[in-house]
């Protein structure tokens, strides 16, 4: 028999299944992986250093660009850390809006994850299905913030503005004829909340569709079952959070255990896995989408009944309404100070964490009392997940690397920061 | 939660009292400060002790205290680049003197989480040597420390004794310097571009100018200061 030597395989840095710019150096024995050495940092932009040179509010936009498929959740983590240090709390309506958008974002993230993950292991249709629903959710993003992806919607002390009363309508163009426009606008007659409610009614059926395609699919199961098994002890040891931890059977969800925003007021369950393999993590995330849908429903009900303010009243921190600036000297001064200098945080440090779609997303802020952070550290869940890559792929086949990358739900914006 | 946080604090104070430099509860978060020599021992305790049971290391990061508390209010030179002091030169002789700094410059901050008790703690450790900052690696206790410590080394140049694989992680291959140090300029030192004549990628001294758009100011806000003396 011929002698077979170990050899090194370079995977990436621009491989379509690497979900971004990941260079993996794999030491192989035949087709079996002996060691995986991920080289990250190809998307390193120094977000934390940039934030040090800007007033606090100007960095909210950077947070969107960390994990660029769950934008508003990143903002939430940052804004919570600021609010903790300022000692303020957003009005209840703003907190409900945040809860709702966190869950919309969770569905957005999981849809991209399931689409890309399925595409990686050979199921083309899923991607198209998932993007069909993402379109509606991004329209909601656009309706409230003007941007489809990088919303910059949350502010310390609330959210930028209240939910609009009308949903923007499609217009006829070179690409859409009258019949198309009529179909697209069918459920956009009411307010944004009506549109979201309509979505929550449609969505469970869509999830059923995904499950018909995947859950009992023989190929899907062959590719996922028993791939990348993590025991609960190892999961804790490796710093895994979110669905990666719950897939191993650890019942840990910050929304339940350390509630923020309005999560203690809404009703939902935490799904957990049993075997800790990729298939269990898939089931966990599918169930999370259903739970998120329920949370959104509850928030919509509350928001429809309870109008109110969405911004904190302290105008040393939040800008006064535009109309007021025209006639009120003090409002004008407040606006001028906020625009030219921002606000100062008291000296000290704080860490605030949220249950991000991918795991625990935390912001650690050190302030020396200035209008810019002295140090901002972003704790990204993907970074810890990526560091477990070696352990998860060891002994698996080359094709399973793709499954493991998919199941970890890696986005390089947050890994590299 | 704050009651149990107080219990946790007194438990740690009682058992590890002499090793703690400080332990405080601020903003509902418990912070303990330890010396680099005791870090490993305290970490083992926090991980193994039944009442602590911090199974998870959430985060490790560095902090550079070089310019702590300094502002950019004085203007000098052109308007937009106010607040920028240093002119960088690749010639070592022309370089500015290193900024004078008393006290400990680098700190390593760890955030721990106990899934069992639903508890968090922050462990802070100031490095003794400013030129050659070193602490012990906690990789043997928490596996997740591996990459977090690599990142801290890459960004701040803090060395971790006993780390199995202390390579750079986020910066480019062949990168020089530690970018998150306060004396590393925001715009960096080098530009990279493809040179048409040499037919390869070349590095050049950075061509843009550093500037400060909003100066850094520190305002004493009365709302955040505790009640004035005699006013209690």
Describe this structure in words.
The complex is a heterodimer of chains A (417) and B (232). In chain A, the strands form three sheets. In chain A, strands 1-2-3 form a three-stranded antiparallel β-sheet. In chain A, strands 6-7-8 form a three-stranded antiparallel β-sheet. A two-stranded antiparallel ribbon of chain A has the order 4-5. Helix content of chain A is 49%, strand content 11%. Chain A has helices at 47-52, 60-64, 71-86, 92-120, 124-145, 178-185, 192-214, 218-224, 232-237, 243-246, 254-257, 278-305, 322-327, 329-340, 381-387, 389-393, 398-408, 412-416; strands at residues 7-11, 23-29, 32-39, 154-155, 158-159, 348-356, 359-367, 375-379. Chain A contains 18 helices and eight strands. Chain B is 16% helix and 25% strand. Chain B has three helices and nine strands. Chain B has helices at residues 2-16, 39-48, 145-156, and strands at 20-26, 29-34, 56-64, 106-114, 119-126, 134-136, 159-161, 190-195, 200-205. In chain B, the strands form three sheets. In chain B, strands 1-2-5-4-3 form a five-stranded mixed β-sheet. Chain B is globular. Chain B starts with a helix and ends in a 27-residue tail after the last strand. In chain B, 28% of the residues are buried. Residues 76-82 and 227-232 of chain B have low confidence and may be disordered. Chains A and B meet through helix 1, helix 9, strand 6, strand 7 and strand 8 of A and strand 3, strand 4 and helix 3 of B.
């Amino acid at each position: 028999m011929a002698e077979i030597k170990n050899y090194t395989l370079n995977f990436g840095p621009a491989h379509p299944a690497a979900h971004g710019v990941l260079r993996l150096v794999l030491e192989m024995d035949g087709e079996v992986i002996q060691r995986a050495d991920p080289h990250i940092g190809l998307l390193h932009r120094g977000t934390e250093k940039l934030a040090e040179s800007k007033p606090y509010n100007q960095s909210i936009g950077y947070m969107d660009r960390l994990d660029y498929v769950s934008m508003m959740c990143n903002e939430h983590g940052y804004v919570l850390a600021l609010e903790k240090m300022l000692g303020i709390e957003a009005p209840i309506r703003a907190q409900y809006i945040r809860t709702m958008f966190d869950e919309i974002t969770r569905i957005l993230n999981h849809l991209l994850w399931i689409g890309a993950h399925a595409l990686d292991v050979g199921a083309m249709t899923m991607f198209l299905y998932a993007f069909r629903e993402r379109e509606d959710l991004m329209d909601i993003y656009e309706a409230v913030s003007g941007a489809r992806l990088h919303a910059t919607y949350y502010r310390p002390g609330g959210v930028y503005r209240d939910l609009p009363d009308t949903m923007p309508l499609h217009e006829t163009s070179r690409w859409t004829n009258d019949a198309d426009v009529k179909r697209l606008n069918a459920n956009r007659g009411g307010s944004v909340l009506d549109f979201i409610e309509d979505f929550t009614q449609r969505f469970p059926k869509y999830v059923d569709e995904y499950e018909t395609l995947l859950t009992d699919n023989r190929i899907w199961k062959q590719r996922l079952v028993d791939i990348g098994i993590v025991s609960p002890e190892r999961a804790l040891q490796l710093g895994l959070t979110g669905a990666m931890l719950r897939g191993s059977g650890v019942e840990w969800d910050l929304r339940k255990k350390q509630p923020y925003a309005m999560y203690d007021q809404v009703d939902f369950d935490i799904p957990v896995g049993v075997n800790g393999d990729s298939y269990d993590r898939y089931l966990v995330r599918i169930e999370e989408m259903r739970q998120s849908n329920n949370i959104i429903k509850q928030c919509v009900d509350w928001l429809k009944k309870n109008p109110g303010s969405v911004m904190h009243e302290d105008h040393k921190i939040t800008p006064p309404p535009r109309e007021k600036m025209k006639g009120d000297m003090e409002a004008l001064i407040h606006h001028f100070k906020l625009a030219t200098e921002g606000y100062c945080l008291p000296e000290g440090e704080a860490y605030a964490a949220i249950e991000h779609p991918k795991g625990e997303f935390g912001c650690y802020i050190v302030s020396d009392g200035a209008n810019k952070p002295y140090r901002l550290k972003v704790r990204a869940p993907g970074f810890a997940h990526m560091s477990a890559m070696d352990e998860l792929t060891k002994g698996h086949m080359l094709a399973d690397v793709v499954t493991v990358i998919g199941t970890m739900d890696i986005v390089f914006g947050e890994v590299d920061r | 939660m704050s009651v149990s946080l107080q219990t946790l604090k007194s438990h740690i104070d009682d058992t590890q009292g002499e090793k703690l430099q400080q332990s405080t509860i601020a903003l509902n978060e418990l912070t303990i400060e330890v010396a680099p020599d005791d870090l490993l021992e305290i970490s083992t305790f926090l991980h193994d002790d039944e009442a602590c049971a911090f199974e998870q290391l959430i985060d490790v990061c560095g902090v550079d205290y070089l310019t702590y508390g300094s502002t950019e209010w004085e203007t000098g030179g052109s308007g937009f680049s106010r607040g920028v002091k240093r002119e960088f030169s690749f010639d070592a002789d022309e370089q500015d003197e290193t900024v004078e700094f008393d006290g400990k410059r680098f700190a390593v901050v760890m955030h721990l989480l106990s899934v069992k008790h639903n508890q968090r703690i922050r462990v802070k450790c100031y490095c003794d040597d400013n030129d050659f900052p070193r602490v012990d690696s906690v990789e043997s206790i928490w596996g997740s420390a591996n990459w977090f410590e690599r990142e801290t080394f890459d960004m701040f140049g803090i060395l971790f004794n006993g780390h199995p694989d202390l390579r750079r992680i986020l910066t480019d291959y062949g990168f020089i310097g530690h970018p998150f140090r306060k004396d590393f300029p925001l715009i960096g030192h080098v530009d990279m571009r493809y040179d048409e004549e040499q037919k390869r990628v070349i590095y050049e001294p950075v061509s843009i100018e550093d500037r400060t758009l909003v100066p850094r100011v520190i305002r004493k806000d009365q709302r955040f200061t505790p009640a004035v003396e005699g006013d209690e």
